[in-house]
Design goal:
By secondary structure, the chain is α/β, with parallel strands linked by helices. The protein has 2 domains: 8-182, 3-Layer(aba) Sandwich (Rossmann fold); 189-284 and 298-399, CoaB-like (Rossmann fold). It has helices at residues 21-31, 42-47, 50-57, 68-74, 76-82, 93-100, 107-114, 127-131, 133-144, 170-182, 214-225, 253-264, 307-314, 330-340, 381-394; strands at residues 8-13, 35-40, 85-91, 118-123, 148-149, 153-156, 162-166, 189-194, 199-202, 205-207, 229-234, 246-249, 269-272, 279-281, 301-303, 319-326, 345-350, 362-368, 373-380. The structure holds ligand PMT. Ligand PMT is lined by residues 193, 195, 211-216, 253, 272-276, 278, 304, 306-308, 322-325, 337, 341, 349, 351, 357-359.
Amino acid sequence: MKNEQSSNTLLCITGSIAAYKSADLARLFKKNGDNVRILMTDSACEFITPLTMQAISGNSVHRNLLDETAEQAMGHIELAKWADTILIAPCSAETISRLSSGRADDLLGAIVLASKAQIYVAPAMNKNMWSNTATQNNVNSLQSRGIVFIGPSKGEQACGDSGYGRMSEPEEIYETIKMSENKFLNGKKIIITAGPTREQIDPVRFISNNSSGKMGFALAEAASKSGADVTLITGPVSLECSNKILRIDVKTAAEMYVESKKYITDADIFIGCAAVADYSPVIQNQNKIKKSSSKDMQILLKKNIDIIASLSREFPDKKFMGFCAETEKIEEHAKVKLVEKGLDFIVANDVSKKDIGFDSDFNEISVFTKESHTHFHKASKNLLAVQLINMLSKNNQSIH
Ligand code: PMT
């Protein structure tokens, strides 16, 4: 029976060492007051017992497609109709492949075919299995059918490898789903800048910085999942984004400014996560500057336009969230930038630390407004991005 007050979540567990994290996931949904039912494949039962999941969810675990007792209580069609949300976590490469083919010879396959619920998949597998073209083709096929992927994350794997394939942390999965369900930013247009800029000295040399674009891309994905119409203006990075996001590739600060100005007119929110070069060479040599054996080289630099400060002055009706990369006196510098750049929020991070900030998959941030200070402990950039977008969403009423 569907309870109108709370959400019905069907958590499906498949065969992966990450299955132990499903217990935490079920707990998070229960804590939120959701009704939780559990489906486990045979392989999942090799990693975590149905008894554990039954105790956490408060319901007996669904395992078989053809089960006389289940048919009387809740058969596959009824279960498919009951669910508002279906989450497959962890989802193995085998399950992704089966779902992509539309198989209906087990309970999970049949439910996925029969249900109108929003389906989320949190993959977990070896990094080579994840990057294999066969898996990626299956993922594309499922995404084109509206299934939303959360992760996988990068990191150490149970098999000893390191790379993309780890199941995302339960909190990230949970928060992403809740944000997607609420779609607080539906109809809002957001511009996000990401990555470094590259200021050419001559055809072979440039001035740039260590930004990888990870934080900005994570924000773009989170904002898109929250229902926003996202334009991502990025400097040179080696990242990909989902095809719902309008991606504009630029190189220099000047190009980033031109594109930002072009798209901001009908936007509601601007997030400046890019590490924009503050200076660029006055002269860009057309030919490679020859090395002189006797003299040092001097390059005269000119100040670049401050993109976010200039836009916030010109478009005071929009919301502006800036980032602040510092190596000392972080709070002090962040508060000055908040005011000087005319921002509504500034997200400060310490880029002197090796395990967060530039190029890391993790960050630790403090968000300042004129009235408040919120600290987010070290976490994956994906989770922090979801939390930042949630914070902006809560401010939604004041976003015109
Ligand atoms: O890309 P990653 O490897 O994931 O790393 C993430 C990050 C460390 C780059 C990110 O979290 C971050 O801190 N980005 C802002 C970096 C930066 O340029 O900080 P800043 O303090 O110099 O600039 C303050 C704000 O002004 C930023 O919003 C920046 O985008 C903006 N700015 C700066 C200079 C300029 N000419 N124009 C701008 O708009």
